[in-house]
Every structure is written in structure tokens, then in C-alpha cells.
């Protein structure tokens, strides 16, 4: 029986050392998921910082060198950059290597990356659902994926040795692995992630543009609800631009539903339909309870942002 | 020079012992803001619980008895109930007593309460901007108002002895006090609080009603953005029904602006305007920074809901 702590991959190559890439590097080392970690980033500044942090065994801007000999290569660059990186590294992938990514959309990634992947390699798109509103190699940490979901969307079916190995890697980093089709992934994420971000970006933009209420008042009194939106509206602009451009159909579909519901809600307010409002607000409260029960958030009031409790 | 810890009021009467009322009771005692605290709640069950908790010096369902002899009376009931409570207690208010409230809307409160207030009492509407998504006397805590804003909307001008005393009371409980007109308050809160709650209620409702994505998937993958909305969509349904019914005009006005901006954003996605999206997402990030700088939220990534950081 194999040692539970035996490395799952010999050489893991990470392309892009932002929040996610640097967290994978830290996690893979902390939990012994890889014998060796090679890192590459298009920015020389990021490469230098990764060397200073010492979170990889080799760090270079040279993509070919980074992926050579790797049995797992993970693209941790913005969605819009994956196709070009795949094109460059494809000739250097080892036979049998697994190529994966961490992008928040999967259909567009498949369309952009798959054409470049040689038949000798296994392409398994992945999406670890974890993150903070910070970016860059300093923002990462080893426990980022603990108790978070990682969705795999293998094109060739949901079993097979390559899928099992990649699944074992993410499990070692603390994630719970789920598999589904790329299309279903994009619909699920459109509602759980992309629409919420879109709405948050929009409301923060609206609040910033008002004439009757100053920006300083909005900031001052933000604790009354607004600030909950500003955290996700502070997420990386490049990453989110790419997500909306690459999951357009599902996002516009979900936005259409949101809009229909908002029209109904607006009518309830205008006509003074207190019972209708009360019924909706009671229903939404139950969903919050389920999220807490399933450990996807804490029940601590106000997320511990209030002053410490003491009587 | 008076002792800084001398009580500010002799007898503070609190009507309604939910999250806010019970936090005022605890805070007033913890920081010595009142010599005596009298509590009243329409629910006998709540009264019994308040007696068990021992957070007031006298607790009764009898409103007249509670306010008799009080130099400060605070209505901590839902906005829609303030008018009726004011009518009942008005004949029992002591000469010179200050009558205040904690409602999230101010124009409607003035319209409902002011007609009942005798000329011998001072009516100063107030709104402490603090709370959690929990309700009831057990949910309160003494430090709830620490470093939070409390807005006073006095009708007779922003100075005078009564305003100074009420201001001192809230300052003693740890709040920062600001004064403005009731009309301006309602506009500011419509954007910083009421619109965010409306949007959060709506998106949680939309997500619950989808056919293509199951409710269990929405809950499972909520960490990707959705859960940030569920906290505020779990707020007290009665309280929020009353807020929307009582600040209708300002809410519908802000919702109109939000809708215009959303139409523009939707067009950017449909036409693939990456530069437009990037510009908006960069602008909203700056507002988040200001909120953190002003201490209205912590910079801790993900509000500390991730597993603890360790390398």
C-alpha cells in the first residue's frame, strides 16, 4: 500500500504565479503533492518575487524549460491568455503529461486550448473555487483550497487514470473534487459567481456616480450593506473582464432571469405589496441557513467584522 | 468637571428588545450610560427572556409603566410599528423627556411619530448603522455600536441641549455621531443599505428558482461570490418589508439608476467591450480601498472565512 504522503506528481509546472498559482505552489509543497515544483510567469518582476519567496524549486520566464519533463502542467493565467500559452508549450509537453488549468470558465478554455494539445497528453480542465480579492504571488497561501470545491471537466469521460491522479492532487491540497461537463460548469458558475460579481460591480459603480449623495458618504455609511458588495467588486479586473467575455451566453441568460425578478420586486414595492415582500425575504433566509449548514460560510454574525463580543 | 463615567440619563426606557434594543441595554449598562434601564416588549416570551438574561433593571409588557419617569425613551420596534407605540406612550412621557428611535428610515418615522409627541418632550429620530443578520434579545451584544455611525435627524436644528445629550449617549456606547436632515438620511441609506439589500434578496431569489441549476448546486458552490449576498438576504423579513414600504420613493429612484447602469454593462458584455469592462472594474476597486482605509471593513482577505493561513 502506497504511503499516503507519497508525492502524486514528480514535476508540477505552474504557469502564472498570481494568487492561485502561488497558492498551488505553497500547497503542493506543504502537503507533499509534488516532488519538484517549476514556476513560470510572463512578468520578470513576478519571477524575481517567486524566487525571493522560495516557493518553487525552479523559476524562469522560459515556458519550454518549465514544462519540459513535467507530468502535471497547470495554467494559472487569466482565461484570455490560456490559448496562447497552450500553443507555445504544446511541443514541449512530455508524453503522458496532464495539462490542466484553473480558469473560472470552462467552455471557452476548451475551445482555446484543446486544439493545441498533442494526442500524447491528457487535457483536463479544472476550476478550484477558492480565492480572495487580492492578487499576485504574495497573496497566495497553502490552505487556500481547504474545504473548497474543485470542479474537473474532463472531455473524455469522468474516469480514467489521469482524472484520478489530478483528483488526488487537488484532494491532497484539501479540496473536495467534483466532475461535470464544461457546459454545465459554465451555467452553475454563471449563477453562483459571475452574476453576483456583475451585480456587485454594477452597484458599486452606481453608488460612485450619484450627485445627491457624495462618494464620501457612501464610504462612511457602507457598513449598512454596501460594503458586502465592495469586496467582490474589488476582484482582479483582468480576470473578470476575461470571464465575462468568455462566458457571455450563460451570463446574459442569468442576467435576464435576474432582471425579470427585479421587475416583479420593483412592482411589489411600488404597489405596497407587503405580503409579497415578506414571503420573498423569508424564502431567501432559508437558503442562507443551508449554506451555513454545509460549511460554505460561518454563522458568525457580520463575519467577525464587528468589534469583539464582550458583555 | 463631571466624571467622564457619570451616567448620561437617569432612566432609559427601551421599547422592543430585539438585536438593537438588547444591544443598547447591554451597552448602556456596560459603559455606564444610564442609571437605570427599563425594558418593554410586546412579546411576553421576549420579556421573559430579557428577565432571564438580566440585561434590564425592570422588564414589563406595560408600555406606560416602562416610560414613566424616563428621561430617554428609545423605540426599537420595526419601522411600521413606531406610530402606534408613540400614540400609546405619548400621554406618559415625562416633561423634558427625549423620545428617539433606531429605525432605518427617517422621513416615514417623523410622519408617523411626530404628531403624537407632546410639546413638552423632545423628539430626535436616530439611526445607529450597525447590526448583524440575527434577530432577538439573545443576538445583541454590548459592543455592537463600537466604531459604527449613528445618524441623528433632529427636526428643530442640529444643536440644543437635547441633541447634545442624545449624542453623548451614543458616543458613550462607542458610536460616531453625525447629524443630517431626515430626507438626506433616507437618500443616503437608500443607496448604501436599502438598494444593496434589495439586490441581494433578488439574486438569492433568482438563484433559488432556476431549473437548469439545482438549489443544492447553488449552495455547494456558493463560495464563489453568491454567499456574500446571502448574508444580507438573511436579514429580518419584517424589518425589511417595513423599510421598503416606508422609503419607497428613494429606493425606486436608486433602483432606476442601478437599472440604467446595468443596461450599459449588459451591452458591454454583449458587444465584447473589454476596455469598458476593465475600466469599470478598476474604478470599483478604488472604492473598496477607501472603505478599508476608513475602518468600515477589514482588509483581511475573504473576511477570514478561509481556513487559517499557514505556510
User: Cα-atom Rg of chain A, whole angstroms?
Assistant: 22 Å
**Helix and strand string of chain A, N-terminal first?**
EHEHEHEHEHEEEHEHHHHHH
Biggest β-sheet of chain A, characterized?
6 strands, parallel
Terminal residue distance of chain A = 54 Å
User: Could you say what the CATH architecture of the largest domain in chain A is?
Assistant: 3-Layer(aba) Sandwich
In the CATH scheme, the class of the largest domain in chain A would be: Alpha Beta
Catalytic activity (chains A, B): prephenate + NAD(+) = 3-(4-hydroxyphenyl)pyruvate + CO2 + NADH
Enzyme class (chains A, B): oxidoreductase
Organism (chains A, B): Methylosinus sporium
Family (chains A, B): Belongs to the prephenate/arogenate dehydrogenase family.
Summarize the structure.
Two copies of one chain form a homodimer. Chain A has two domains: 9-180, NAD(P)-binding Rossmann-like Domain (Rossmann fold, 3-Layer(aba) Sandwich); 184-298, 6-phosphogluconate dehydrogenase C-terminal like domain (6-phosphogluconate dehydrogenase C-terminal fold), CATH 1.10.3660.10.
